[in-house]
Design brief:
The chain is mainly alpha-helical. The chain has one domain (17-146). 61% of the residues lie in helices and 7% in strands. The longest helix has 35 residues, at 43-77. The chain is globular.
Length: 153
């Protein structure tokens, strides 16, 4: 995992038309990415905190774990660094790296039930390595994103 600061940030998040649930998924994922890149900052705490905040005590942990499972599936297969924008930097968080865009494209394909497109994006995420486990992880993640229920506090 590797994050950008003072570099080409990529595509503006605002240009991609993500739903609120997709933006929540990206935010949770970025905190997990950050946890792998800089473990001492304990990004996993922020990932679970955001998931609990947007999904509540019942669904929040499932949402966070499904996101982490998708990330871990990619990490087990991918050989090079996964580039992401830092979730704690206000400027960086407004953009998506090309790796993040592929991650989100895989999620969207899974949400749409488009297995061929999901396999293509998983193949890219896995750098042409066997991506079967990644496909299944994104299908599970899509189910948690799709089943989003509003949280009442």
């Amino acid at each position: 995992m590797s994050h950008y600061h003072a570099a080409d940030h990529g595509t503006p998040l605002s240009a991609l038309g993500y739903s609120e649930a997709e933006r929540d998924t990206l935010r949770v994922a970025r905190h997990f990415f950050h946890a792998f890149c800089e473990p001492e900052k304990q990004g996993w705490i922020a990932a679970f905190a955001h998931a609990l905040n947007v999904r509540g005590a019942e669904a929040g942990p499932h949402f966070a774990l499904a996101t982490l499972n998708a990330i871990q599936a990619v990490r087990r297969v991918r050989h090079s660094a996964f580039r992401f924008n830092c979730p704690t930097c206000r400027e960086c968080a407004l953009y998506l790296s090309s790796n993040e865009r592929t991650f989100m494209a895989a999620l969207r394909a899974a949400q749409a039930g488009d297995v061929a497109r999901l396999r293509a994006h998983a193949w890219l995420l896995c750098e042409a390595n066997e991506a079967g486990v990644v496909v299944e992880a994104f299908r599970a993640l899509a189910a948690t994103v799709r089943d989003r229920e509003p949280v009442t506090l």
